[in-house]
Amino acid sequence: QVQLVESGGGLVQPGGSLRLSCAASGFTFRSYYMSWVRQAPGKGLEWISGINFGGDTTYYTDSVKGRFTISRDNTKNTLYLQMNDLKPDDTALYYCARDTLTWAKEYWGQGTQVTVSS
After folding, report:
1. What are the tens digits of pLDDT across the range 22-47?
2. 108: closest CA among 30, 58, 39?
3. What is the Cα gyration radius of the chain?
């Protein structure tokens, strides 16, 4: 069955960096668009980044452009999110998701917590 397992979250000071990983299994990873979505405390889900099959086309919400980088390694069935210059507003539970061709979210991981605080 489809499994998405995020890792790499933690507590970081403002201005710091983290790299999240999402290990995928149970499907042909290279055949799917993938996304990162986050949920801050008390708020709704926020899509933050997406990537196409081969990783050569990426998309970002404005609040993370220039700070976050999405990438994928199709040989390792793994999705990544490099997060730099982290801000307290980036504190959230971060999920990876498998997308349809219209970017609808079909499957979700369990999430990894990112906390940005001094």
Report:
1. 999 999 999 999 999 999 999 999 99
2. 39
3. 13
Looking at every residue in the chain, the average pLDDT score rounds to 97
Contact 9, 23 (CB under 8 A): no
Find, among 49, 53, 58, the residue nearest to 30 by Cα: 53
Q: β-pairing, 78-83 with 68-73?
A: antiparallel
What is the percentage of the chain residues whose pLDDT exceeds 90? 97
Strand ranges (E), the chain: 3-7, 10-12, 18-25, 34-39, 45-51, 58-60, 68-73, 78-83, 92-99, 105-108, 112-116
- The single-letter DSSP state of residue 58 is E
Give the C-alpha separation, 118 to 2, whole Å.
37
d(C-alpha 71, C-alpha 76), whole Å: 12
